[in-house]
Amino acid sequence: MGTVITFWALAVASVVAALAVVFLRDVFRAALFLLASFIAVAGIFLLLSADFLAAIQVLIYVGAIGVLIVFAIMLTREVKRGNPWGRMRFLAAIAGALLLVTIVLAVVNTAGWPGGTPPPPQATTEPLAMRLFDLETGFVLPFEIASVLLLAAVIGAIVLVRER
Amino acid sequence: MNFDLLTPELGLCGTALLVILADLVVERKTVLAGLSVVGLLVAIGLTLWLWGQGPATAFGGMLVMDQFALFFKLILCGAAILVILSSVDYVSKFPRFQGEYYGLILFSAVGMMLMAATRELVSIYISLELASISLYILAGFLKDHRSSEAGLKYLLLGAVASAVLLYGMALVFGFSGTTHLDKIAGMVGSLEGLGANPGLLLGIVLMVAGFGFKIASVPFQMWVPDVYEGAPTPITAYLSVASKAAGFAVILRVFITAFGEPAWLSQNWGMLFAILSALSMTVGNVVALAQGNIKRMLGYSSIAQAGYLMVGLAAVGRGPGDFIGQSSILFFLASYALTNLGAFIAVIAISNKVDSDLIDDYSGMARRAPLLALALAFCLISLTGIPPTAGFVAKIYIFYAGIKQDLLWLVITGVINSVISAYYYLRVVRVMYLGAPAAEEGVPSSGALRTALGLCSLGVLVLGIVPGVLIGVAEAVKFLMP
Amino acid sequence: MTIGLEHYLILSAVLFSIGLFGALAKRNAVVVLMCIEIMLNAVNIAMVGFSRFWGLLTGQVFAVFIMTVAAAEAAVGIAIIIAIYRSRQSVDVGEVDLMKW
Fold first, then answer.
1. Residue B65: strand pairing partners
2. Which of B53, B209, C55, C81 is surrounded by the most beta carbons within 10 Å?
3. Is-contact C38 B159, C-beta < 8 A?
């Protein structure tokens, strides 16, 4: 029963916070609600017994990305401009609503999802490391590519923000 | 672990770092372009060596070096060489960061080469992002108003497309419990219908949408005109050729390996690609008619060319056992790469001098720069699909693949569109040859750029007259099925 | 009542749609970036949910990579936004109407 209540609380919190990001007029507050949404999602990860992911969700999203976004808002005086709507917002709303209905219908009617009760939760950090770095069955290749990707992103970010 | 298979990519990463470091000490910046080209030539050599070794896999089947992957690596390395050669003049305008410019082109090439060579969703996603993030940066590299906006628009729309692609991947993973394409095929292959599994169907459709963005197919083409116009012209050329080729490589591999069986499923995605193909051809060509800026025009033209290419995808879907659809795509991509790069290189040379991308400013170019105008005219003729050019052979070949799979309506749409496209391609030729020159002085260009343009024109001509050899190679190229 | 896979998937769908709507409907580039992060979070919920109910860690590994890319993308995006701010020197930055066409 505790899980049910926690799930609903976190789900409502994350959705309300996401809606606030879209609908609030003040960009700075929108960013704060984004952080709230990230934290609620970290809670969802805990419910799914993904403890390591919950931790790095807080570290990367709330810590790194959140701070980056707040920095961007302050550095560019984005706050003064507010959070205006584009010209095609009704089309976007229709697209979003259609997508939502489609996904929900598709997801609910699918027989092929893994069913039943999940295995009992356990600590994931060590198995996750094994899954990532096992040479034969692990994800060493994407890990190596990710290192090149981060290098490219760092170089690019420096090039873009240095004065000409 | 067989690290030999990664040598072309590792070599390119090393070259990229070397170029960035060399930028700090070298005074003559053309050396950097030379270094990058040498690195790419070495990568081509290593690729050919791997071709001789025969197909192999590594990293538990994630990385696969078959002829299909190696063919794309050759196209991608070749395209990167031509782009770098044509950048030499353009880049001399930058006071700083030339090394980073070449380095990022190489990083992006590594990402695209890996896209063609991975058989697992996580690796596909991350190599696609490596290619894309490097391109976002390169699109905004000029840091002026237009270029930055192009970079930002490309990044934001690209990130939305990636998220859609990821949602599709999540649904496919949720259905099959694995990210390996061959194992997904094992779960999908025995299905009787998707009526009981709309979630899987939605996953496939969302993946089509995500990949459709990368190849600039309608209705996911909204980024093309502004990004093509605002990005540095060599990068526009790179985007229009390499990023499209890598996108098609991924689509072919994912859809044939994972969703090639059962037949009713491939029939359905084949039909989906046929519809996207008809839309892309029509929208791309009709909107291109109204363009006055040559970069925008070539942007819409590249949307239309993606449409022709998707005729091949539709043919693959309708007859997965028949390889003509696949080989016609390979041949089309190779000839399209040469043709489109040639056209863009001529545009780079002219815009360096004229400082404008308006078609009206090309007036009388045949008298100011006869060879340049001739090469541009030749490439535009090839894009239209008139003999004796590579574009003509490629179009005939891909339409033949379509007819063979009973896609007559699509081929007729394609032929009508080719006729429409003649109007705007040949309009540029007419302006260059019949218009009065605005000025008398010629259009200077560097040796590197002339070499690149000469290589492209020669390639277009050779493939147009004796296409047999490359068609033979394209037909022999298969990918390693599990 | 128990919380099954469907609950997590529907939550993920709701967040994804809100993010997509915001990304297409908003004009402020930073807000669009925030909406994209919401979409990626939604994808991660679906990935981890599937992972949990399959009893596999593959989905969690995928989520780790998505977070890595999200951070890199945000860094590059914000670098471009700052470059635009510099080149225009005005408060009117990031005027990108993504559905202008």
1. B56
2. C81
3. no
Of B133, B152, B173, the CB nearest to C72: B133
Q: What letters, b where the CB count within 10 A reaches 16 and e where it falls short, cover A30-62?
A: bbbbbbbbbbbbbbbbbbbbbebbbebbbebbb
Q: What tokens were used for B459? A: 């390639």
CB contact under 8 A, B160 and C36: yes
Does some domain include residue B212? no
Contact partners of C by the rule of 3+ C-beta pairs under 8 A? A, B
Do the Cβ atoms of B143 and C86 come within 8 Å? yes
Give the CB-side neighbour count of residue B165, counting CA atoms within 13 A: 25
Contacts of residue B162 in chain C, CB cutoff 8 Å? 69
Domain encompassing residue A126: 2-102+120-161
- Give mean pLDDT, residues C31-38: 93
Q: How many CB pairs under 8 A join A and B?
A: 108
> Is residue B422 situated within a structural domain?
yes
**Which uninterrupted H or E stretch holds A33?**
helix A27-47
CA angle B445, B447, B450 (to 5 degrees): 70
Looking at chain B, the whole-number percentage of residues with pLDDT higher than 90 is 67
pLDDT of residue C94: 44
Q: What is the domain-level CATH number for residue A46?
A: 1.20.120.1200
Q: Give CA A118 to chain center in angstroms.
A: 23
Give the chain A residue whose CA is nearest to the CA of B197.
Answer: A110
| Partners of residue B169 in chain C, C-beta under 8 Å | 62
Class of domain C5-88: mainly alpha
- Give residue B328's domain range: 269-482
The SS3 assignment for A55 reads helix
Q: pLDDT tens-digit profile of B45-56?
A: 999 999 988 888
By the CB < 8 Å criterion, does A160 face chain C? yes
Residue B440 in domain: yes
Nearest-CB residue to C8 (from A48, A65, A86): A48
A119: left (phi over 0), alpha (psi -120 to 50) or beta: beta
The complex's ipTM works out to 0.94
**Calpha distance B373→B476 (Å, rounded):** 36
Condensed to tens digits (0 to 9), the pLDDT of residues B273-325 reads: 999 999 999 999 999 998 889 999 999 999 999 999 999 999 999 887 778 88
Q: Which two tokens stand for residue B145?
A: 């108003």
**Interchain CB distance below 8 Å, A149 and B111:** yes
A112 belongs to a structural domain: no
Cβ distance A148 to B100 less than 8 Å, yes or no, reads no
Q: Is B371 left (phi over 0), alpha (psi -120 to 50) or beta?
A: alpha
Could you tell me if B312 and B209 are in contact, meaning their C-beta atoms sit under 8 angstroms apart? no
Domain count, chain A: 1
Looking at the domain assignment, is residue A110 inside a domain? no
The answer to whether position B253 is within a domain reads: no
Chains in contact with B, counting 3 or more C-beta pairs less than 8 Å apart as contact: A, C
Provide CB contacts within 8 A for B223, sequence distance 6+.
B153, B154, B157, B158, B213, B216
Element (H, E) at B63: strand B63-65
Q: How many domains does chain B have?
A: 1
Whether the CB-CB separation of B399 and B447 falls below 8 Å is answered with: no
* B301 contacts: CB under 8 Å, gap ≥ 6: B284, B285, B288, B383, B421, B424, B425
Q: Choose from B96, B137, B164, B220 for mutation: most chain A CBs within 10 A.
A: B137
pTM assigned to the model: 0.94
The answer to the question of residue A55 being in a domain is yes
pLDDT single digits (tens) B78-89: 999 999 999 998
